[in-house]
Each structure stands twice: as structure tokens, then as C-alpha cells.
Design goal:
The protein contains nine helices and 19 strands. It is α+β, with helices and mostly antiparallel strands and 378 residues long.
Length: 378
């Protein structure tokens, strides 16, 4: 009898093993030019429910990610907020810092964050606790600094902040070399919105990329360029900052208000879509780049505000930080309705498409083709 039980157990275990497929290999992940992280990746595929259980490990053996997917490309390493074209998160998703401290824990449904998602600093202090529903912030969201100080306690409904503060954001400014020569001349303005990694209270961070990077390198522009800085743990849509900001810079600089242009990348790309939908009449043209659009209903509900504004949008097809579809979906809604619509897709480019755009002259020449006075004559 005991022998029969052992045989049955062995058959059961063998059946389980046959139902599982395990793949182990080294994944080379390029984090920047010349900088690559090598992860040990273990993928266990459960044939009984068609779920991929994926674990990634740092080179020191410390686990980095533990996640479940209903579809999965084993060669893709995406961020927690992103589901690449072929990858769909489902259930619990976790990440760890290299020192072994948990970095992130979230829940996903059909590839979208749903439920409580929490992140921690590498010292163990909680950084954020957010409520998500179908990929949108919905409910309470709290944020802390690394020393444990509560920075903000917010409420969101379908991604939109319900208790926005009227605040002033600090900013970098640039004026053309001839700005002081003719004191009666007004100049076109570019408002540049940075990405998520440049948030904070140190304006020097803004020189890391985009138009401020070009200015830092000594490039001259025929525009006034103003680059506001978004505080930590906020989005460009969290606070009521823009109206104060725009009133201030109009009073401080000689701006041609018929030639005001808005552009930004990643978080700033999302902010570009949002501000254009909210303050359509201010901008002569916009150029959003690689930004989320499905994270709030506000953009979709005001899509009609974007049909009469020239738009040049950019997104890399293999972006594994913000999915390409986030721009594509808005473009599809505008096709046939907006006659001044351009969508540049780079098939072999990821989230760093901004490095192909801002260093070149084409975007700036395109901006100058658009003047609200000319549009009004039409």
C-alpha cells in the first residue's frame, strides 16, 4: 500500500513537471549607451493556465523581479508601469532594490494596474501608496520623502487629481542672444516639459536632456525657452500651476503670444497632451513625445480641443517604458479630424527618441511655421 502511494505521488509530481516548462538564461538589458545590466532570468510556463511566472536576478544573486504574465516575450525587460506589445502582466508584480529591500509591489489585471500599489526607498522607507483601477489612479494616493516625511496626501478620480493645489513651479529660462538689442521686439516661446527622472527641486537636473541639454551645450535658439520643474511625486496634471506660471512669464518676458509652443518627453509628453487639452487657445502648436495618455479620462473627454491645433507627435516603436500604443491611440482618434497632424514613428527606437529630435533643427523650423494670426486669417 505504501509502495502504491509512493508511485502515485511520483506520477503526480512527474505530471506537474510535464505541465511546467522552465527556461533559464542571461538577459542583457541596456540601461543607457554603453551601460548594460545582465540579469539571470528564470521563466516557468504553466500549461494548465497559460501563465508565465518570471523571476529576474541581479548578478550578485539578489532577486530583482517576480512577476506573472498572460503573454510574454522573454527577451523584453520593461518597467513596472509598462506592458510591452507582447507582454501582459497579471496578478502580483514585485521588484527589489539591489540591496535586497523591496522596491515595488503592485497588482495587475489584463496588463493594467488595479488595486493598491506600493513602492519603497532602498532604506526601507515607504515612498508611495496608490490606489489604481484599470490603469488609472483612482482613490487615495500618499507620498513620502526618504526620511519618512509625508509629502502629499491626494485623491484621484480616473487619473485626475481632486484636490489640486494652486502652486508656483520654479523654472529655467533662456532668451536669444539678441533679446536685449531691440526692447520692443517680441519673441516666440517654447515651453519645455521634462520627464519623470528630472522631477524635484534642483533645476540643474533639467540640463540632463531635451532642450535644456541643447542650451547647456551652447546651442543658440531664436525662441525664448522656459522649462518649469515638476516636484517629486507629482505629474504635470497634479497641481494648478500653469495659469500662475504663464501669467508670470508673460509679464517678465517679451513673448509673442501668437507663437507659443509646447513640447515634452515621457512625463512631459503626457503633460503636453494634458495642457493642450486644457488650455488649447494658448498654444500655436504642440509636440508631445513618448507620453502616457490612457492614465486619465480627461484627455479623451477633451479630444475635440485637439482637432484644431497643429500636432507633431513622436514615439519609438520598441519603447519599453511607455508603450508605443499610448501615442498611437490618440493619433487614431485625431486622424481625419486634425489636418495639421504628424506622427513620427521610429521602428527601431525605444524611450530615448527625444535624443533624435531635440538636437536636430526640423522641429524648431516646424514650430515657426505656425502662428495663430495666420490661422485666424484662414
Amino acid at each position: 500500500m505504501k509502495r502504491i502511494a509512493i508511485i502515485i505521488l511520483l506520477i503526480f509530481i512527474f505530471g506537474l513537471l510535464k505541465a511546467q516548462e522552465i527556461d533559464t538564461f542571461l538577459l542583457h538589458y541596456a540601461v543607457s549607451k554603453g551601460d548594460t545590466i545582465i540579469y539571470k532570468r528564470i521563466i516557468q510556463f504553466d500549461k494548465s493556465n497559460n501563465i508565465f511566472h518570471v523571476k529576474d536576478y541581479f548578478e550578485n544573486g539578489q532577486i530583482q523581479m517576480d512577476a506573472y504574465y498572460s503573454s510574454f516575450d522573454k527577451h523584453i525587460k520593461e518597467e513596472y508601469q509598462c506592458n510591452y506589445h507582447s507582454n501582459t502582466k497579471t496578478g502580483q508584480y514585485m521588484e527589489w532594490h539591489k540591496n535586497g529591500q523591496v522596491e515595488y509591489s503592485g497588482n495587475y489585471k489584463n496588463g493594467l494596474r488595479s488595486g493598491i500599489c506600493t513602492s519603497w526607498y532602498d532604506n526601507g522607507q515607504k515612498e508611495a501608496e496608490e490606489n489604481w483601477v484599470d490603469g488609472q489612479l483612482h482613490g487615495n494616493a500618499k507620498y513620502w520623502s526618504a526620511d519618512g516625511t509625508l509629502q502629499s496626501d491626494l485623491v484621484f478620480i480616473h487619473g485626475l487629481s481632486q484636490n489640486p493645489k494652486k502652486v508656483d513651479y520654479q523654472y529655467l529660462s533662456y532668451t536669444p542672444k539678441d533679446y536685449n538689442t531691440d526692447t520692443l521686439k517680441t519673441w516666440p516661446l517654447i515651453i519645455y516639459l521634462h520627464g519623470g527622472s528630472d522631477r524635484g527641486n534642483n533645476l540643474k537636473k533639467l540640463y540632463s536632456q531635451g532642450i535644456p541639454d541643447q542650451i547647456y551645450r551652447g546651442r543658440e535658439f531664436s525662441f525664448i525657452v522656459i522649462s518649469p520643474q515638476c516636484p517629486e511625486h507629482t505629474r504635470w496634471s497634479t497641481d494648478n500651476w500653469f495659469e500662475n506660471f504663464y501669467t508670470e512669464i508673460k509679464a517678465k518676458y517679451r513673448i509673442d503670444t501668437n507663437r507659443v509652443y509646447l513640447t515634452g518627453m515621457s512625463l512631459g509628453g503626457s503633460g503636453t497632451w494634458y495642457l493642450a487639452a486644457k488650455y488649447r487657445d494658448i498654444f500655436a502648436a504642440i509636440a508631445p513625445m513618448s507620453g502616457f495618455t490612457s492614465h486619465m479620462d480627461f484627455i479623451d473627454s477633451r479630444i475635440d480641443k485637439l482637432t484644431n491645433i497643429p500636432i507633431w507627435a513622436f514615439h519609438g516603436k520598441i519603447d519599453n517604458v511607455v508603450p508605443f500604443e499610448e501615442t498611437e491611440r490618440i493619433i487614431k482618434k485625431l486622424e481625419g479630424k486634425n489636418k495639421d497632424l504628424i506622427f513620427t514613428i521610429e521602428p527601431e527606437v525605444g524611450h530615448w527618441i527625444n535624443w533624435l529630435v531635440y538636437p536636430n533643427q526640423e522641429l524648431y523650423d516646424w514650430f515657426l511655421k505656425h502662428d495663430k494670426r495666420l490661422k485666424n486669417k484662414d
